[in-house]
Design brief:
The protein is about 80% helix and about 0% strand. By secondary structure, the protein is mainly α.
Amino acid sequence: MASATASPEKQSSLRRVVTASMAGTVVEWYEFFLYATAATLVFNQIMFPPSDDPYTPIIAALTTYAVGFIARPLGGIVFGHFGDKYGRKKLLQLAIILVGVATFLMGCLPTFDQIGYWAVGLLLFLRFAQGFAVGGEWGGAVLLVSEHSPDRTRGFWASFPQAAVPLGNLIATIVLLVLSNVLSPEAFLSWGWRVAFWLSVVIVAVGYYIRTKITDAPIFLEVQKQVEAEKHLRYGVLEVIKRYPRGVLTAMGLRFAENIMYYLVVTFSIVYLRTALQLDVTAILGYLVIAHIVHMLVIPPIGALADRIGRKPVYFIGTVLAATWGFIAFPMFDTRSPIVVILAICLGLVIHAFMYAPQPAIMSEMFPTRMRYSGVSLGYQVTSIIAGSLAPIIATALLAEYGTWQPVAIYLALAAAVTLVAVVSMRETKGSSLHDLDRVDEERLAADKDADRATV
């Protein structure tokens, strides 16, 4: 059983697990968000037919971006099933290779002028592969840490893979910022952007190597042996839906506003600042660099706060503030003042962190070990289809239709209302034991078995 505090040896082992989890997550999200930025700055110009309306190619590029989100639940289901059977580590190693290959090949793609709509088709295929891999990455990465963590500090330790997401985004933004600075606009659009995608080979190699140095958590290894010995024990997405539907629905509800807000802040903001306000691309990327650093730094302290005061209060604060961000941030954007714009983006990511930081602990504490990978992946990834994947598209369409930011702010506020329902209805799990959760699951299975015998 995980103890309230960990010995120095366990602390050292936990730090290695955190490092390995973060290393791979940085790689995965460097590549995933590299596409997001390229979609709004590059792909809309070279991968699609030209248009007199500046928003049309952007919406087309963001639609291919959404394909990655559609693939993520499928990846979560497949990786979750085999991750619950064979272990978190093996599946994480596969995920990092798959996303690396897809991203490298994106850098090799011909343009629309060269092969027409075949360029769009190839881009869609690689984006799907990338999303499939990322769909399996998140659940494995956070569980690797959550299942190694002491009960009383799980919120803190499990938040580090979340902090790796803005770190990956930060690296992607820095790479594009450097390339856009040292190259002429023509050279960057012609071949410079490809370098950022090719660099994934180096980052993947480092992340894969680090992940070879860790093992799955003892609690998983114990349950794995139990599942192998007791053939009636099941795992996978169907078992999760059957046994823990409330956990899946709650996870989806918690994810809804958080996912929408993130992509409004880091993706749609680029569209708004560049297309509506005509700000310089290099300046926008510089603003995002600062914001990603702030986001990365605030996530672990907020995770620790969730250990002290509880998961629900922290998430409640983030959800309520998320409803207000659009009404505050867009007038700040409209000032065109660099400092004010940076503050608006940073404010959005700090608010987001109040929802994002406690997520791994909350979702890990919803499902027993035998189906935890499937449960957290399903609850986390399915929501992305209707939330994050569509958020930049919906926001851009609203901006194009109404010519103002108010409908976008209302859209985010309505999303926050949905998530608030999930926050109010969720159980507080601060300090809970994963072993106790497994024990309750075993008791439920035994009771069902006795009921079946009595029926017979």
